[in-house]
Amino acid sequence: MLKSVSCTQIPHRLLLNSQHLYTSILYSTQFSGNIKAFSGNIILIFGNYIFFFKYYIFPHLHLTILPQSITKGMKYSLGKPKLLIQADDFYDFMSQEASAFFAFINAFTIFLRRLIMLTSLSLIFLVGLVMGAICQKLKLPRIIGMLVTGIVLGPYVLDFLDPSILSISADLRKMALIIILIKAGLSLDLKDLKKAGRSAILMSFIPASCEIIGYILLAPVILGINHAEAAVMGAVLAAVSPAVVVPRMVMLIEKRYGTDKAIPQMILSGASCDDIFVIVLFTTFLNVAQGGKANVMDFVNIPVSIILGIILGIVTGLGLYLFFETSYARKHTVRNSMKVIIVLGFSFLLIAIEGWLEGKVSVSGLLAVVAMACTLKFKCVPDVSARLSEKFGKLWLAAEVILFVLVGAAVDIRYTLK
User: Taking the alpha carbons of 63, 64, 67, 68 in that order, is the dihedral positive or negative?
Assistant: First the structure.
């Protein structure tokens, strides 16, 4: 066995491969406040390579940084010569050096893995914000920079993100979406919603239907696919992403752009219903493309899902309002920060209920969250709802970065490069 022994003689054996070709005793120290000994081991690692250059590459070069007492086959640590590696020839020496070096790298890698989740989060926030700011300076949407960050840092390019974060990416994205939906609900005014009621209903299905019909008619001619495949692709293209549309409409509402005619409110509410409509169509078309049949009940569930989601959200919002008011009346004031946590908790619960009832009763969890926030806005004192909206707006600053960077990380750019 080839071995490299540390100055403190405390072995940490690391097998470098399954055949046990090398067994290295890692340079180590009982680190009990002995900084000098710890530093000595670091110096020892570099000393190995100084020794190599001195005696194998430049045998006639005089290195004044080493004591004169050092001889061939000897190494140096903390001014005291130690017989650490006895090398018979050049290849023997290099084999031992490679063994010790890879053992050190393996140990260092294990240490880094303990910090890799924090490193991934720091990269998501810092690089995402920087790229967003650069795109903003170039008069481009910030989300482009965040999406590019996710693509580059993701598993299909540099692979810098921890797999444990990617494994919960869908849940993190949904949490970020919930935050902006609450913010949207707290920004909506029921008067504006009534004004945009009929138009919002039409917006929820007419644009998507036109896009799907156009794709079914033109895609077979242009792309050479059958009508069932064209319908599936049309449903994919017709889907509206609430994560993109909702924050932009909230920004327009806050800046009072188009609010006189309730245009942002109309698009915001229509986008939420559009998602339900298109998802049902996509599922139906995919089933037909795979040789199945369309289920009429899927289309019946569209209005059922919307209505039940709104009712569930209103009931939850009224319950939270009564809880906050009762606590205030009994002089147990709930701080606004605590209200944010409670509202978030119930929002997560509403999304979970949608999953619990899947296959039994159709309920839109996203619409329930928006309806709950709208109810709180309508029932609570304006100052309270304004402060809640402000706090959720601050949460969105971080949630936006997480959402779009992780969306970018889910994009497999290899399909584009083929």
Answer: positive
Q: What is the DSSP annotation of 235-300?
A: HHHH---HHHHHHHHHHHHHHTSSGGGTHHHHHHHHHHHHHHHHHHHHHHHHHHHTT----HHHHH
Residue where the block lists tokens 């309730």: 262
Nearest to 178 by CA among 278, 295, 313, 328: 313
Type of residue found at 297: M
Q: Are strands 23-25 and 13-15 parallel, antiparallel or unpaired?
A: antiparallel
* Measured distance CA(374)–CA(262) in Å, rounded: 16
Other residues' Cβ atoms within 10 Å of the Cβ of residue 6? 22
Q: How far is CA 114 from CA 66, 107, 163, 313, in A?
A: 37, 11, 13, 41
Distances (CA, A) of 347 to 52, 152, 167, 219, 360: 64, 32, 22, 40, 21
Query: ∠ at Cα 286 (282, 291), nearest 5°?
Result: 150
pLDDT digits (tens, 9 = 90+) for 134-167: 999 999 989 999 999 999 999 888 888 888 888 8
pLDDT score recorded for residue 98: 61
Q: Which residues pair with 75 in a beta bridge?
A: 82
Residue 169 near residue 175 (C-beta atoms within 8 A): no
- What is the C-alpha to C-alpha distance for residues 390 and 124, in angstroms, rounded to an integer? 24
**Whole-number Å distance between alpha carbons of 75 and 54:** 11
DSSP string, 295-309: -HHHHHHHHHHHHHH
pTM of the model: 0.68
